Amino acid sequence: MMSAIGRPHPQSRVVFVVVVVVIVVVVAVVVVVVVVATEARTYHPSQAPSAPPAPVRRVLFVGDSLTYVNDLDLHVWHFAEAAGYASPSLFIDRAVKGGAPLKTLWKKTDARQRIAKEGFDVVVLQEDLPETDVATFHDYAARFHEHCQAAGAATVLLMAWPYERLDWISTEGIAEAHGSIASRLGARVAPVGLAWQRALKEKPKTRLYAKDKEHPALLGTYLAAAVVAVKVSPSETALSLSLKAVADIVPETGADILAADFVALDLEFSGLFLDIESGRRQLSIENYFARCVKSIPEFLPLQLGVCCARRGASEGLWELRAHEFNLHPSSRRIFTSDFRSLQFLRTNGFDFNAFFDQGFLCSRLPARDAEKKPPRSSPHLPYASQVMQALLEAKKPLVFHNGLLDLLHLYTNFVSDIPTDHHEFGQAWVAKFPLLFDTRNIAQEGQYNVLQHVGGLTLEELHRHLSGLHASQMPVRFERLGPLPAAGQAHGSSGYDAVLTAEVFVMEMELWLRSEVSESARKRHRKERLKEIEEELQPLDWQAIHERAAALGVSIFRGAVQGRMGGPGGARKKVGEIRADLVSVQYAKEVDEGRPAETSASEKKKKNNNNDNNNDNNNNNNDSNNNNSNNSSTSNNSHPAESCRKRPRAEESTSLLSAEALVSSKVCRRFHNRIAI
C-alpha cells in the first residue's frame, strides 16, 4: 500500500504533464490577449489619426558657468514638461563657455553659426554682468539679437545676480541694464536676479548661492529655471515678437517728427492731484503751481500720444500721423494712483492689459554738454526717451490742450526735477523746447468773437463745434494717415487725443488768422472811406457845410463850457472842425444803417477795370457768358456793402495757416509759450 502511494502510476504522470501544458498555453493566450488589448487602447500622440504631430520648439541657451552649473537648461525642460509644452515638442540645447561674457561667446564660440543654421525658435542670452560693463553688454546683446532676428528667433535676456567677488553693480543696476536694452530691442527679460532678491528678502537663510558665493546652488538653479521656463513658453515669446513690431514705430515716429510742421502731444496719468479738496477753491498762480509740483512726482504718466501734422500738397489739407506709447519707468518705482482717474480711463476705453504687456521704458535724457552737443542718434536710450530726444533736437512747435500737467510730467520724467518757481520752470522749458501752443488758451482768448463758441472748452466740445463750421469759414480738411486707427475715443487713447488736439489747433488758428485779416481789412477800408468823405466835403463852402451839418444833426457850436460868446450854445466852430465832425458822423451813420462802405472807391475802380477787361475778353463767348458778364457789371454798380455780401473775399476759400505763419505771424506770436491755467 505504501509503495503504491509513494510511487505514482505511469498514466498519472502523463495526465499531469498534459495539464501543465494546457495551463501554460492558457496563460500565454491570456497574456497575448491582454497585450493586444492594451496596445489597441494606447498609442503615441503622433500616431493619432486626428492629431498631426506637434512642431518641435527649439530653444538655445547661450551663457557661461552660471548657466551650465547644475544644468539650468535641463531644469527648464522639466518645468516646461510640468506645464505641458515640453515633451515631445520642446528641444533644448546650449552653447556655453566658462567665464565668458557675451563678447567672448560672440567671438570664440559657434553660437552665432548655430543660431543661423539650426532653426532655433528662442535664444536665451545670459550675460555675466559683473564680469563685463554695461556698454559692452548692450553692444553684444544687440549683435546677438540682430542675428536672432535674421534667423527668425525670439530673444530672451536672462538677468543673473550680483556676487561678492565682483560687487561693483547691484541687483537694481543689473535689472536696469537688462530692462533698458530689452526695451530698445523688443526682447524679453527673465528677471532671475530680482526673483533671487525677493526670495532672500522673504527668507534670508535660503541657500541660493553655492559655497563660492558666485555660482548657483541647486535651489538657486531651480528658482532660475522656474523664471526662465515662463519666458520661453510659446505665449511669452510670441508676445516678444509682437513687442519688436511695436518697437519699430520709434524710428518711424522720429522721421515723422522731422517732417512735421508742428507736433501735438497728450498724456494720460494715474492721477492728477494729491490734495483733492484744495482743487475746489480758487488758488493763485503761485499756489496752483506749488500744488502741481507737489503732486506730479507721485503719479505716473501712463501713455504718451504724439501726432505729427504737416501741410499737405492740396489746398487746405493737413496730413496727420499719430503714434502712441505706453510708458514704463526704467527702474522699479512705487507710485500713487487715483481710483477715480483709473476708472475714468477704463470707462473711456483705456487698455490696461496692453499697458502692462507692451510698455516703453522712459528715463531722463542725458545732460547736454554746453560745448559739445550729443550725437543725433542715441541708440542706448530707452524707446520713449528716444522720442523725446527727437522732439528736443527737431525744435518743432509743440501743441497741448490745457497742457500744464503734461508739461510738468514730461519735464520731470525726461529732463530734470521741476523748479519750484513757475517763472523758472517756464524759462527751463523754453530753453529745451522753444515754441509751444495751448489750444485751451487760444480758445479762452477768442471764445465768443473769433471762435463764435458759447459752449465749454473741453477738447471734445471744441472739436465738435469747430468741425461743424461751414466750409466758407473753415477751409481746412484733415487726412489721418495712421499708424493709429483713424477713429477712437477721447481719454481712452492719448494718441487719439493728440489727433484731436492737432485738428482743434489748426481750426482755431485758421479762424484767428482770418479774423485778423478781416480786422485789418476793416481798418483799411475805414481809413480809406473816411478819406473819401473828407474829399467829398472839401470843395464845399461854409454855407454848404452848415447845411450838411444841419441835415446830419451836427452842432456848429462849441460846448457852453468851452465858450460863452458867439451864440446860444457857445462859440461857433471853425469850418474845419465842423467838416471833421461831419466825416465821423457820416461814417458812423453808414455803419449804424448796416451799410459800411467796406469797399473803397480805389478798390471799386480796380474791380471795375478788371471786370471791364474780363468783359472785353469775353465778347466772343456765347450768350451765357455774356449774361454772366452783364450780371457781374451790375453787381459792381450796387452799394459797396451789397457788393461785399455778394462777392466773398479771396481768403474765404483759402487756408491761411502754414508752418511759417506759426512762427512769424503776429496772430500766432500772440499765443507763443502761453499755457492755460
Automatic annotation (TrEMBL):
Database matches in SUPFAM superfamilies: Ribonuclease H-like (SSF53098), SGNH hydrolase (SSF52266)
Keywords of this entry: Membrane, Transmembrane, Transmembrane helix
Membership in a protein family: Belongs to the CAF1 family.
Upper taxonomic lineage: Eukaryota, Sar, Alveolata, Dinophyceae, Suessiales
Region feature Disordered, mapped onto this chain: 589-650
This protein's name: Uncharacterized protein
Pfam families in UniProt: CAF1
Signal peptide: none
Native species: Polarella glacialis
GO function term, MF aspect, one: 3'-5'-RNA exonuclease activity
Biased composition annotated in UniProt, kind: Low complexity: 610-638
Transmembrane regions: 12-37
Domain of life, source organism: Eukaryota
UniProt keyword Transmembrane helix present: yes
Record-linked Gene3D superfamilies: Ribonuclease H-like superfamily/Ribonuclease H, SGNH hydrolase
